[in-house]
Amino acid sequence: MKTKLLLSSFLCLLFASSFAQDKTTVNATSSEISDNLDLRAVASIFGESKDLADFEFRLNDPKEQISNLDLNNDNQVDYLRVIETLEGNVHLVVIQAVLGKDQFQDVATVEVETDSNNRMQVQVVGDVYMYGKNYIYEPVYVGVPVIYNYFWVSNYHPYYSSWYWGYYPTYYYGWNPFPVFKYRRHIGLHINFSFQYNYVHTRRFQSAYNNYYNRRSNYYERQYPNRSFERRNSGYTNRYDLDKARPRRDVSNVTNPRNTITPRGNTTGTRSTTNPRSNSTTPRNATSSPTRSTEPRATNTNTPRSNTTTSPRSSSSTPRNTTTPSGNSGNTSPRTSAPRSGNQSTSPRANDGNGTRTNSGSGERSSGGGRR
């Protein structure tokens, strides 16, 4: 009997431990590094910058919070510095995360060149370690961005950021990263969707990038060689393929061009309650005006007098009648006003005086307050 109890207890413990292991496996999650910097937002602010110093400012503006990258896991978003290198006629604008003293990791490049028709060609390319192979967006801007003129001035010198670990511009301060789902909602406010962002899988300036590749900064990659995009997402070429396969709400469906303007205008219209209130007061005024109107009372008081009196004095007594109710309300009792309101043709006093006594009496009352 004891053996059976021990065996049953052992089986129960084994089942409970296996269930706990399965539960842990189900709840285990892994974060995707490339979710924390949307390259469309990078392309958007590049087209709105006046030069590369302004571009670096916009990347790190604490008010905008374009980036959500925290590669060194210090619970603060990494500062992104911008350096530029010239490879023939191609300007390679490199975005690097500052992770520590003399520790940098390339995140993305903005590659700029003019074609044979003297038109600027721009590609924003994610670093292969961060985003996979050939993760590329070609922005199409509305109008000619001001920054284009910056690249073709005389005596041009490539831009190289002067900021590094522990030495940052005065406007900058670190902030805590968002959860990924909040970052997707947040970044939609900072992507200008009046521009177009065409995804392509062919690099226009491959030879120029090959010349730079061996000089790229890859501190994080060397520290964690098993965390490359291919290792993190087996079976997917790059971030674009991953987005197509996994269910998620794209930020372009959250908001629309600089959505802080259009939706606010719409919300003030829908949330306004002045129109319904003004509509509700209209029927109140309409129903109250007939009840408060004094016109029916005036016609009722004048009608019997016009029938009882035919002399010219009846016309002159008409304005007196307008003041009679106020006088009667204060000086006479309800009994005196009752026979005059419409029963004069049937009252005994009207028959005895043949109409004349009634007129003289009313005149004396109006002038001297009556003989009673």
Largest beta sheet, briefly?
A: 6 strands, antiparallel
Order of secondary-structure elements: HHHEEEEHEHHEHHHHHHHHHHH
DSSP, total strands: 6
Helicity, in percent?
A: 40-55%
Strand ordering within the main sheet: 1-2-3-4-5-6
Based on Cα principal axes, name the global outline: globular
Radius of gyration: 44 Å
Report the uncertain regions.
13-30, 252-372
Please report which band the strand proportion falls in: under 5%, 5-15%, 15-25%, 25-35%, 35-45% or over 45%. 5-15%
Instruction: Kindly name the structural category.
Output: alpha+beta
Short précis:
This protein is α+β, with helices and mostly antiparallel strands and 372 residues long. The protein has 17 helices and six strands.
Write the layout of secondary structure elements.
Elements: H1 2-27, H2 39-48, H3 52-60, E1 79-87, E2 90-100, E3 103-114, E4 120-126, H4 128-131, E5 136-140, H5 147-150, H6 180-187, E6 196-200, H7 206-213, H8 219-223, H9 229-232, H10 239-245, H11 262-271, H12 274-292, H13 295-308, H14 313-331, H15 334-340, H16 348-353, H17 356-368
Antiparallel strand pairs: 1-2, 2-3, 3-4, 4-5, 5-6
